[in-house]
Amino acid sequence: MEGMDVDLDPELMQKFSCLGTTDKDVLISEFQRLLGFQLNPAGCAFFLDMTNWNLQAAIGAYYDFESPNVSVPSMSFVEDVTIGEGESIPPDTQFIKTWRIQNSGAEAWPPGVCLKYVGGDQFGHVNMVMVRSLEPQEIADVSVQMCSPSRAGMYQGQWRMCTATGLYYGDVIWVILSVEVGGLLGVTQQLSSFETEFNTQPHRKGLHGPYPFGQS
């Protein structure tokens, strides 16, 4: 496309030549993936529609019209807090997936940001959780309630931070799940939850304080 400020690399051009579909949903999905999920599906459809659903032209239009003045928040993935490498979970089991993330930029995040499911396996019905605005370099944990698939195997899904205006930013956050009949993750999380609840209950030493038989 003439007037493009950004050159497309040969590998990307090869992907264009191999994509011979006219299915609009497939084109939107591919456009979104090639841009690293920087646009929501509606934004992808806008650029594709204005270029007569030509994927290569739509990518060029996106880079032509992308405003360099827009301040994009920064986010870095720090670590998996739950479901780390090598952990497994039984089929059809509720669990909580927690990531540790950081505002790696020089500005605070705008209000109304959230973590959104963007691709792969979703693990339940939750597709978005609100996240508080983090100050520069601040670290926080983000959790999502999930449920493992009914069949054993390896599964993976992708999540990304998103502004209130629909702009995706930061690292892609992965859920890589090993579902095994003998998986113990669900049990360990339940035990951890029970232990936390038990430790927060008041420990009663007797009906009348530390002296069960009263004072004479």
UniProtKB/TrEMBL annotation:
**Signal peptide interval:** none
Q: Which InterPro entries match?
A: C6orf106_UBA-like, Ig-like_fold, Nbr1_FW, UBA-like_sf
One GO CC annotation: nucleus
Q: Which GO terms describe its biological process?
A: innate immune response
User: Where found?
Assistant: Cytoplasm; Nucleus
Q: Which UniProt keywords apply?
A: Cytoplasm, Immunity, Innate immunity, Nucleus
| Nbr1 FW domain span | 82-179
Q: Describe the subunit structure.
A: Interacts with IRF3; the interaction inhibits IRF3 binding to its DNA consensus sequence.
What is the documented function of this protein? Answer: Negative regulator of innate antiviral response. Blocks IRF3-dependent cytokine production such as IFNA, IFNB and TNF. Interacts with IRF3 and inhibits IRF3 recruitment to type I IFN promoter sequences while also reducing nuclear levels of the coactivators EP300 and CREBBP.
Query: What is the protein's given name?
Result: Protein ILRUN
Q: Which organism's genome codes for this protein?
A: Rattus norvegicus (Rat)
